Amino acid sequence: MGTSTNSGSDRTPIHGGWLHKVSVAFSCGVLFPAVVLCQSAPAAEPQTKTPPKVTYVDHIRPILRARCFACHNPDKKSGDLDLTNYTNLMLGGGSGEVIDPGSAEDSYLFMLITHESEPYMPPNSDPLPAKEIALIRAWIDGGALEHSGSKPVARKPKVDLALQQVPTGRPEGPPPMPTRLSLQPEFVAARRTAITAVASSPWAPLFAVAGQRQVLLYHAETLQLLGVLPFPEGVPYVLRFSRNGALLLAGGGRGAYAGRCVVWDVRTGERIMEVGDELDAVLAADISSDHRMIALGSPNRVVRVYSTVDGQLLYEFRKHTDWIYAIEFSPDSVLLATGDRSGGLFVLEADTGREYLNLPGHKGGVTQVSWRADSNILASCGADGAVRLWEMENGRQVKSWGAHGGGVEDIEFSRDGRLVTCGRDKLAKLWAQDGKLLKTYPAFRDLALRVTINDETNRVLAGDWTGELRVFAAAEGQQVGTVDANPPMLEQRLSAAEAALKEAQQQHAAARKAYDAAKAALDAAQKRLDENSRRQATARQTIQTLRKSLDAMAAMQKQLAAERDAAKGQVDRLAAAVPLLAQSVQATEQAAAKAGNDAELKKLAEQLKAVHAQKSQTLKTAQSTIADREKKLADLAARMKQDAEKLSAAEAELKKLAAAAPELQKTVAGKQAEVTELQAKLTAASKVLEARKSEVERWKREIALAADRKRLKQLEQQLTQDEATFADANAKLAAARKALEQATEQAQQAAGRLKAAEQRIAAAETALQATTAKKTELTARRGKVSEVVAALTQLTAAQKAAAELTGAKDLQAALAELQSALKRNQAVLQTIDQELAAVTSQSGKLAAELAAAKKELPQLQAAAKEAEAKRAAAAAAVPPLQKQVDAARGKVEALRKEIEQLKARLTPKAKAA
């Protein structure tokens, strides 16, 4: 049996000791529990300190009470939003829900308090302090817990997954394939472990393979790794592509601890949804073809079906009596098949969860189910070793056959109705749906656990207990390759690729050296052959030339001999005639002389003399010709002898060269064959070398991309911190500016109060001077009026006495006038006294006010000075804070720019049309 690297843990889906769990698993005749036991226990992972939970009750409500309750309470629901209790907060307000559990960035309330969206909250105020914003962010990202005992609220999907209609055929456009996903493994185990899940895209050459804490995507044709999808929840025990191939679902977790289902976008690798919060690992799951529902099952024996619209639980099915191993929606999304470890097999109405069929028949656990493409036939397999086919009209079993001795572990329908299975007999097999065995693939070293068929490439992927994953040509049956469920880190791949490149370079260099040596030998042999051919050609040309020359010289020899013989004939003829002609000339001359210089004889003598001269010259010429021709004939004979010798040598050399040519040609042919063979090896070595270079460059690029992704994640985290710092600095700057405004206002108020006091003092002094002058004037007037009154009083008394003594009427009239004048002056004096009293009172008040104002003046001066100092200090505090804000803004903008650049590098460019 294979063993797991995760040993020493007791956190598994059943109770009791580890050995007991394995024995229980095998006593049931089902392998899957043993796989769970070995794979799901996470004890080997390093333990990290769990951060404290951030909850509404303990952390968020106090912040909201201090900042928001005044406007958002049951009595005053501003925006129809009540924040005073958790339920009302999660319900939201007039604008809808304000909290998106799991994503602060998508939560409306968070956008308002960070001033990323209007209306800013709190209104007419600065953003909340950075620490409070960070706490609210942590609360929302942590699932928006109500209290420490709460579970995270299920996060709603970012997009509506539901399709308008159920897909029934090939989707339009290119099949969904990963674009540029990370190839860096999330985890590399010390050794391979059992294969827990595999899946194949229905419309693309794509395999999905479960690893520890990750899902791996492989190209079904090239078998190259296309992407790594993190699954930090634990081990995936089930993988399912959606019926249109656009989504990939994984279900799994950690045994006896936690289970969850995750959905990714196949193209982008984006995690778009999570459902379920099981207390044990999810062992079976599927997504409906219309993308509206996700069903899952685990050792808790309950089938749960969730909505992809809001992540809420739609219904539960609780009739299973044992661990749930198999779940699959029918292709038309009408039915849902579920199977358990005790042989329970049910078909439910997918929308309602009502039981549609109960399909008894398996004598052991139902390990897997699969629907035919038309949704009319359900295939099931189990620990009894049988494959069973069920029709959906009445639930009748229409076919059954023994497929694998000891138990069938997995089954899957292909698009064309064939079936692939694997089992405890270490085999994977291909069947016609009538039970006819089409192909048996080479046996594994251990129990075959998982199998899937890729319709686009007609390839089968199967894996066993030891972690080996083989790819077979479905129809032919031979193995075409393997894939790795535990791939090494990119750095290890690069190191291996560099080592392979070094070896390829050495092999290429050796192949090049051997080829160059053979080519040099071939060139030398060819050179010798060419030299032989050249020399043969030269010899032939020489022979031809010599023969032509000899023929020409023979002809010339014949001609010269003829000319010589002709000249000899002339000599022979003229040698006797010339002396006779001389004698005739002499005789004729003598005869002429004797005849008295006979004119006729003299003329005849002259004629004979001319003939003698001509013949003598002809004889002489002939003799000269004979000598010349003799000499030429002698020279020609010597030349002909030389050429004849040369011709003989050339013919001998040609014969020798012609005899040597076949051996040279044989040598060249042998060398050419060797060169051709070595050239093929060099070409193959060059291809390997180029492939190794490409592999090295590929892993370098992937490492760079991984570094970019890591850098992007760090930058995004840094951006969050720097945005908080920027917000905090902005808040401090706003507070400093507000403090400056307040200090300026207070300084202005203090200066105003001081100026008002100084104006009051000046006014009081002026008024006091005026009242003093008035008082002096009134005092002077009173003195004068008093003197007049005193004089009139005396005159009146004297006049009255005189009038009484005398009784004179005129004195009586004068007395009346005096009395009248006295009264008038007394009234004037009384008025003056009143005015003087008023002026004296006013003067006292003014003096008191002046004294009080002068007394208050130093305090107001000190207050104004202090207020001005505070204003100056507040003004001095603004520039450095502004500098901090500018610096923080610069960092945020620089980070955003770098993030955009990284995203651009990580986003694949669209191909030109």
Could you describe the 3D structure shown?
This protein is α+β, with helices and mostly antiparallel strands and about 900 residues long. It is built from 9 helices and 28 strands. The strands form 7 sheets. A 4-stranded antiparallel β-sheet has the order 1-2-3-4, with no helix packed on it. A hairpin with a 3-residue loop joins strand 6 and strand 7 (about 260-265). Helix 3 crosses helix 6 (about 130-140) and helix 8 (about 600-805) packs antiparallel against helix 9 (about 810-905). It is elongated, with a radius of gyration of 62 Å. Residues about 1-50 have low confidence and may be disordered.
In short:
This protein has 913 residues and is α+β, with helices and mostly antiparallel strands. The protein is 51% helix and 18% strand.
Write the layout of secondary structure elements.
Elements: H1 18-27, H2 32-40, H3 56-67, H4 86-91, H5 108-113, H6 130-141, E1 198-200, E2 206-211, E3 214-219, E4 225-230, E5 235-241, E6 247-254, E7 258-265, E8 271-278, E9 284-287, E10 293-297, E11 303-307, E12 313-317, E13 324-329, E14 335-340, E15 345-349, E16 355-358, E17 366-371, E18 377-382, E19 386-391, E20 397-402, E21 408-413, E22 419-423, E23 428-431, E24 437-440, E25 448-454, E26 459-464, E27 468-473, E28 479-484, H7 490-594, H8 599-806, H9 809-906
Antiparallel strand pairs: 1-2, 2-3, 3-4, 5-6, 6-7, 7-8, 9-10, 10-11, 11-12, 13-14, 14-15, 15-16, 17-18, 18-19, 19-20, 21-22, 22-23, 23-24, 25-26, 26-27, 27-28
